[in-house]
Amino acid sequence: MRHYAGRTPDRRVGSLYFGGGTPSLMAAETVGALIEAAGDLWGYVENPEITLEANPSSAEAARFDAYRSAGINRLSIGVQSLNGDALTFLGRRHDATEARQALAWAQERFERFSFDLIYGLPGQTLAGWRAELADALVLAGDHLSVYQLTIEPGTPFFRDGVRGADEDLAADLFHATRAALADAGLPAYEVSNHARPGGESRHNLAYWRGWDYIGIGPGAHGRLAEAGDFIATHQIHDPARWLARVRESGAGTAKARPLAARERAEEMVMTGLRIREGLDRKRLIEVTGLPLDDLVDAAALQRCLDAGLLESDGDILYATETGLLTLNAMLAHLLAPPEDGLS
Fold first, then answer.
1. SS3 for 145?
2. Which of 1, 74, 98, 309 satisfies CB 3.0 to 4.6 Å to 112 for a cystine?
3. Nearest to 187 by CA among 281, 54, 79, 321
């Protein structure tokens, strides 16, 4: 933190996020020391968002009071399901009773908290998922993250031949999720994230809006505006090697390289179309110097507009409900290869 503070003078911290791995295994005193250090090194904006990811096991939930006293003002709890069989399938160590108890404790102790759910599990039905969502909404705070199960090559699920929901059911589950949460006052503000007005994750919005952020711990990524460049950083993944490098040089950075203008612009297109507020064409030019027309295939863009996958409102381009279903595939066809000499 001291290393990066020296590179970012006159900046303030708007959000601090303890996430990845299991940060709720840290002693509350450690969390408090890091929060205090960030304030000493940079200073905070008024009412910063300070989030800690936590598992809903009884042992970790018992620390919620201590984390609040240490300065955490937002909790993100890795529930994944309120169904015991689903938790067993997903390999989670907590059970449904512990999950419900952790959410009840969070509700009592934190004004802002979130938890995550996963749908599209083998054998899941639309009716069953709607019932689980209704159950979850009783326990929800100001934010919910809801993800579709994806079977990635190299994972145990993939090796075991596990199959999630087929495309038609997955689409039905997606639309049912968005409708149910919108009706409950938590509309989607990003593909998988839902919040009451004002409850959006400020930290994650910074990623999707293309702002800069500093990644500190092992394996963390960062994007840092510095001396006219936009630097992509990646910290050493292995904790022991990371710590040794910090002791040697003050930072555990494995890689740091300036992003070309096109790289940054494509990142902004990909993340900007994920969020409800969409991609601001004017800001894209202000940040990268490249207009959208230099980044995307014009014919592909028009096809997406004609098909109702994208809509344009003045300078804002955003994906429709239909477009969000095929966003990754759409982006692959939309982004044009770079022209000769363009960087």
1. strand
2. 74
3. 321
